[in-house]
Amino acid sequence: MAGKTLAIVLAAGKGTRMRSKVPKVMHKVGGLPMIEHVLGAVRMAGASETVLVVAPDSDWAGTLAQAPRAFVQDPPLGTAHAVLAAREAFASAPDAVVVLFGDSPLITPASIERALARVRGGADIAVLAFRTDTPTGYGRVLMADGQVVAIREEADASDAERAVTLCNSGVMAIAGGAPLAALDEIGNANSKGEYYLTDLIAIGRAKGFAMVVAEASAEEVLGVNDRAQLAQAEAVFQDRARRAAMEHATLEAPHTVYFSHDTVLGEDVHVEPNVVFGPGVEVAAGVRIRAFSHLEGARVASGAVVGPFARLRPGADIGPKAHVGNFVEIKNAVLGAGAKANHLTYVGDADVGAGANLGAGTITCNYDGVHKHRTTIGQGAFIGSNSALVAPVRVGERAYVASGSVVTEDVPDEALAIGRGRQVNKPARSPSRRRDH
Ligand code: UD1
Ligand code: MG
User: Fold this and answer.
1) Domain final position from 177, 192, 221
2) More confident: 3 or 198
3) Which of 134, 319, 384, 394 is an S-S bond match for 403, by CB 3.0 to 4.6 Å?
4) Same structural domain for residues 189 and 308?
């Protein structure tokens, strides 16, 4: 986008309808705060500067990924008042300003660009609008001869105006200079006593500004005011993520697979039903994720098989062609190429060498109640079923641990370790024991 563009993202509203201790815009969609979705879209639309308007004590603003300059609006007296809280940023003399709401996480860069393009093309103001059969609660966009003549808030609208189905998304592109300066003329003579950004249109009409509409889908401008709308936004996000994934991966039952904003699936990944991808998951080409698996903060290399019923926790690094089977949990551990943990196993804080085989019920005892310790299992090692490896401990390459062992000392390469009570057989004792009872 040529020219200097300033994006102002409003997030100083009280968010009362969420009934939450968490600020509204920090509620997550696809595992990412709503405000980050908006800021991401603005970045992709190519704004040259982005600023945020927040309420006092908004510590969250400093925790954002690329924390923009934040202006405090105190008290919140309406959307126009909020934009003017950032007026210091106007000093950079932007060619265009685009205003967005922090509670509309589904906005796309393309729609922001479309509104800005109208201003670049000569309009003084471009309103991003959408059509809906259920316009209740939105400002109605009133048109005459292809020009926007007013935006009427629900509370101030006549019956005839309420019947209008063209609604204001909240995104507005304003040309620098006179249109931007006109913000100062907005008053608060409305039913709520607030300074409405939408009143800029009536002022612009009196001044003869060219004011147009750019259209977006109702879906992408959904404003989240309560938790039901949050769930609606999540549903749209998931739908988008599934479609994107299916461009190159197979989802057997797409509506049962849940993605995060940063999930990466390689080509020909095959995902069976009921799988959850938490944040930070990268799955390489050709991997099969079997049903009912839960992954977060994990990497899975090509050709590996995960699940069914597997849990990969943060730091799980599954090597090429490795197998992670049912009821296996892996945390902060590397599973080497072709290694197998197929049944009922916990691998935490461990390095498992290539081709090692962990029998059913293998547990790395990584926590002594105070500290975490690492377990190292050499390549080609074999851990017999139901063994406990008490960390810190190392099992050597191609070593063998007998079933049911509790391993507390290092096992040298190629050694056999047996760490269990010895079996004793008492001849003919079974019948007499039964008589005793
Ligand atoms: C607003 C629009 C309405 C539009 C709708 C789309 C106005 C007057 N109304 O209504 O035309 O159809 O969005 O969702 O603009 N905010 C502040 N400071 C304030 C007030 C609000 O920062 O003093 C922020 C909020 O945090 C929020 C955004 O502005 O991100 C919109 O405020 P909200 O109260 O949700 O406006 P709506 O009633 O939804
Ligand atoms: Mg709103």
Assistant:
1) 221
2) 198
3) 384
4) no
Which residue, among 437, 391, 387, has the nearest Cα to 417 in the 3D structure? 387
Atom of ligand 1 nearest to the CA of 81: 23
Q: Give distance in angstroms: CA of 225 to centre of ligand 2.
A: 6
Q: Which domain holds residue 145?
A: 5-221
Same domain, 157 and 274: no
Catalytic, 343? Answer yes
Spatial distance between the Cα atoms of 82 and 97, rounded to a whole number of angstroms: 14
Q: pLDDT tens-digit profile of 282-334? A: 999 999 999 999 999 999 999 999 999 999 999 999 999 999 999 999 999 99
Q: What is the CATH number of the domain that holds 184?
A: 3.90.550.10
**Residues near 75 by Cβ (< 8 Å), separated by ≥ 6?**
none
Q: How many A from CA of 46 to the centre of ligand 1? A: 24
Q: Is the pTM of this model over 0.85?
A: yes
How big, in percent rounded to 5, are the helix, strand and coil portions of the chain?
Answer: 25, 30, 45
- Between the CA of 224 and the centroid of ligand 2 the distance, in Å, is 6
Mean pLDDT computed over 395-399: 98
Let me know if 268 is exposed, middle or buried by CB neighbors in 10 A (0-12, 13-18, 19+).
middle
Catalytic residue among 343, 371, 373, 437: 343
11 lines ligand 1 (CB under 6 A): yes
Ligand 1 proximity of 306 Cβ (cutoff 6 Å):
no
Are residue 177 and residue 254 in the same domain, yes or no? Answer: no
- The 10s digit of each residue's pLDDT in 30-63 is 999 999 999 999 999 989 999 999 999 899 999 9
Q: Residue 174 forms beta bridges with which residues?
A: 97, 125
Write the burial class of residue 211 (CB in 10 Å: 0-12 exposed, 13-18 middle, 19+ buried).
buried
Best of 77, 101, 183 for a ligand 1 pocket test (most atoms within 8 Å of beta carbon): 101
The answer to whether 49 and 7 have CB atoms below 8 angstroms apart is: yes
Give the burial class of 2: count Cβ atoms within 10 A of its Cβ; 0-12 exposed, 13-18 middle, 19 or more buried. Answer: exposed
> In a 3-state reduction of DSSP, which class is residue 345?
strand
